[in-house]
Amino acid sequence: MSDVTPINSAIFASKEVLPALGNTAKEVNFNDPQNALQTINDWVAQQTKRKIKNFIDRVEANMKMILISTASYEVEWKYKFNPKLTKKENFYTSLTQTTPVDMMSIRGRFYRRYIKSIDADVLQLPFAKNEIKMTILLPRKTNGIDKLLESLTTLELKDLKFKGKPTKLIDVKLPKFEVDFKVDLKKSMQGLGVHDLFSNANFPNITNHGVMKVNVIVQNVAVEVSERGALFAFAARAPSPTSKFIVDHPFVFLIRRGNDVFFAGRVNFADN
């Protein structure tokens, strides 16, 4: 992840508001909802390297414009999971049910800790640049994900800090996974007291068509975790004991740098 991540933006607008927007807008015909929808979703898919393919699911004929911003992050592991070691293994979605997943494997020296307050083991996997890390929170109990989520309010980021260098070899097994999260921010903003924007907004510099309103504000985040990254290598030495960190039941992940958390998610494969 670079320190400066390019953000691509586009305004899709109906013909009557284009003059006020100049060359910054792309014309779409909202009276032809299917084509307008296709045009907008194709642009988002291209900007996000097809990680997000169906950003919006409908447009309406009375819409005047849609503003979209995208950012795409690609981060590589500091130590790569060898794809040749990835194989199908069972992941427990409950105490009695499993589903097959592509389980990645690696042996290395990583930070690991047990945190009693959340009854979970913590593993830190570094990315190649800018001190970005993925932190895995794996409950000790196979069915402990709900309790973990409830107890996260007691967790402070200082609890996830590690000192020194990791010294113990750990055999790590982590499933490949994708998380696609979409949220309508309209309700959240209304809860913060923003109401006129959605009912009685005024944009005099854009249009003289009277009162307008914002129909929806949507955020969509897609995260894919795979083996990609720099090859893992370590100097040959006498065999040393290893411990295991096998992520074979529901867990929480954080992608962060220091106290800044960029993404967080829960993985359970329950819908597979």
TrEMBL record:
Keyword flag Glycoprotein:
no
Q: Which InterPro entries does the protein's record reference?
A: Serpin_CS, Serpin_dom, Serpin_fam, Serpin_sf, Serpin_sf_1, Serpin_sf_2
Alphabetically list the UniProt keywords.
Protease inhibitor, Serine protease inhibitor
Q: Residues in domain Serpin? A: 1-270
Instruction: Please name one Pfam family that this protein belongs to.
Output: Serpin
Entry-linked Gene3D superfamilies? Alpha-1-antitrypsin, domain 1, Antithrombin, subunit I, domain 2
Work out whether the entry's keyword set contains Iron-sulfur.
no
Protein family according to the UniProt entry: Belongs to the serpin family.
Q: What is this protein called?
A: Serpin B3-like
